Amino acid sequence: MGERTKTINFNKIEPGMRIAKNLEQNGRVLLKQDVLITDQIITKLKKMYYIESVDVYDNETVEKQVSIEDKKQAELSRVEEEFKEISSRLQNTFGQIASKNETSMNEIRDFSQKIQNELTPSSIVIKNIVLYGSGEDSIYRHGVNVAALSSLLGKWIGLEESKIKLLVYSAILHDVGKTKIDTEVLKKYTALTKSEFNIIKTHTSAGYNLIKGITFLDKSVSYGVLMHHERVDGSGYPLGLKGEAIHPFAKIIAIADVFDAINSDRGYKDKKLPFEALQIVKTEGLGKLDYEYVKIFIEHVVGYYTGEEVLLNTDEKCKIIQMNVNNLEKPLVMRDGEFIDLAKEKHLYIKEMLL
């Protein structure tokens, strides 16, 4: 028999209750079934919507002890919904910039603040990006993910707060130049030709030209936009800059950009297996990405994988016990109480991260 449900007045909803039926308004799902109610969810819904009643499970009460995993799931769902909302609003802002109507810096500051508000705990944000990536949205959701990762990396590196704010502005705007590229090229479902790739490469200069005139925007923001595809060995674009000639913001954004792009489905490719994105970032750090920044990024991110559940290629569930920095795709895992070193089990690999 399924769990009993009841309909209650929305004003009586409390943290710890669980939604029994999708809460919808005007065809839009505000809360999915089984979402655990938190204080943040209640505050947001009361502020933005008028809701008369909601269906909850009868056996869920605020006094019931909620497991750690339930709390994590609730936070993960909340962050996902917030990132989706920011992405949607960002599309409108980019449209204003692209049409040469100067956008208000207040909007960029608001996006930056909203993203930074979601960075605690950082483990939830990293898990969200690893699980969902940015899908086929290579501009708006990708920009939100890159901004979140850039902010975290800036903090780990030790940047002062004022510079982190500017870094996040730059990361949010890093792909605004893609709004000037033909959609057919941008969303092509097959491999790009050389001429098409050359068109894609113009987005860095186009983005720089779009935002350099925004009033009161620090020049460091536009430099991050212009240079985020430069590489320390000089193989990048648009200027072929090397090493110290590349602005630090661009070096940070480049790492976040590569990580999210590899970890996302695109029209022309599927996302890589879990940990491949991390391994590729590490490899790129040996000549193309800033080595010290990559080292710091990996040292911090691997810690968030420990304790997470994963699915092997044999469809067996395991828990990560220890990451192997020298072989990121092959951690030590536990399966049914037994330790398994994937580095020694060549036929086994992780195919999926689990919620």
UniProtKB/TrEMBL annotation:
Protein name stated in the entry: HD family phosphohydrolase
PROSITE patterns cross-referenced by the UniProt entry: HD_GYP
Limits of the HD-GYP domain: 117-313
Organism per entry: Clostridium gelidum
Pfam families: HD_5
Gene3D superfamilies: Hypothetical protein af1432
Signal peptide: none
Organism superkingdom: Bacteria
Taxonomic classification: Bacteria, Bacillati, Bacillota, Clostridia, Eubacteriales
